[in-house]
Amino acid sequence: MTDKTQSIHGQWSSRFAFILAATGSAVGLGNIWKFPYITGENGGGAFVMVYLLCVAALGIPIMIAEIMLGRRGRQSPINTMQSLSKEAGADPRWHYLGWCGMIAGFLILAYYSVIAGWSMAYIVKDFFGGFINSNADEIQRLFENLMASPLQQIFWHTVFMIITMQLVMRGVQNGLEKAVRFLMPALFVILILLVAYAMSSGAYDQGMTFLFNPDFSKIDADAVLTAMGHAFFTLSLGMGAIMVYGSYLPSHVSIAKTTFFIAGADTIVALLAGIAIFPLVFANNLEAAAGPGLIFQTLPLAFGHMTGGWLFGLLFFILLFFAALSSSISLIEPAVAWLVENKNIERHQACVWAGSACWALGIGVVFSFNIWSDLKFFDKNLFELLDYLTANLMLPLGGMAIAIFAGWMMKQSHAEQELEIPAKGFQAWQFLIKYVSPAAVFLVSLHVVGVL
Ligand code: PHE
């Protein structure tokens, strides 16, 4: 099917392909690695509630807005914002939003790739029987050894970066689309298996209570900011990834329906990961607030003791790697699309440039887990700093700007024309992006800088 308007980079072959790719972008390390450990650090239930609320009230409306802007602009986020601000008669400086997002994606990928590298290292560890019959101490030592080794981590980070760039080089239909076809269903199945194992661990109830029983005395402004930031991070919002994917979306596809599907799938995967992990944490007297190592110190215990654990472990880390891959390609796509459009270079060259720069920054992230662990900026090592800066600040603020642009700058008739949803739904959406999203992000930010 040909479209009146189409991006120069190509287009998804169908609505299904877009759903897969956008779900692939959303479901990633954020759901399986990050969600459990930040939930553990922030006391459980209440944090989960705030996160779910943010997904519903901010994430879904902003995702609709971001896809819509992308599809209307049909270019990299920077150029999309430029032409849309022209069309709307708004200040041309709106294109800085695209810049900010491109930089955020770049900063995220630098550490994302390092963590994805851990999952690759764990594929090999499982393969050689590294988890079989290990106790909690041994599993912990395995993780600490990996953290202490810059060389191992740099190796895997490099391999991951090369694979990512290879995929991005192949472009929209060949690279991005094919990569995500079978992953999501497979990941889902293995998570269900892990949940079943967690049910038999003896601490299932305790895990569920921790996750779903809110104790609001456990959270403060910082926890609310983390929950809000994570809603943006996990849905890939606020930095142009979803916008650039939207720019490859055929004109006839319903944006709202697609969004509900993506956000639903993303949330289910995160909750399943939590349900699989926390019973194991409590059954083995592990620390819920163990930090970024949480899944690497809990799940191998399950794999080491369950029947068929060797195989499931292998499958799990392979799928985690693929989930990370289908997200990482979307983190760098805005930068690559922009380089191709503005610097007049070929796609593969753009990949080499963007990928190398990201890789170099990732080396610093590797060091922040060992030789530079004492090097702190604002009390945070480089990994923590990049994470805070992007997930807690750049993505929510980027999301807020997207909401303001779609709600206040763009002509209402244009938004209606893109979304084609019944009047009631449209009004609800407009209310959320005009008032609720900007106000929520603004208030939480004020709280954090200490004004409120
Ligand atoms: N959503 C991805 C995850 O949960 C991370 C991501 C963030 C991807 C921003 C693209 C853009 O792992």
UniProtKB/TrEMBL annotation:
The chain crosses the membrane at residues 12-33, 45-69, 96-124, 154-172, 184-204, 224-248, 260-282, 310-340, 352-373, 393-410, 431-450. It comes from the Bacteria. The keyword Protease does not apply. SUPFAM superfamilies: SNF-like. Belongs to the sodium:neurotransmitter symporter (SNF) (TC 2.A.22) family. PANTHER family: TRANSPORTER. This is Transporter.
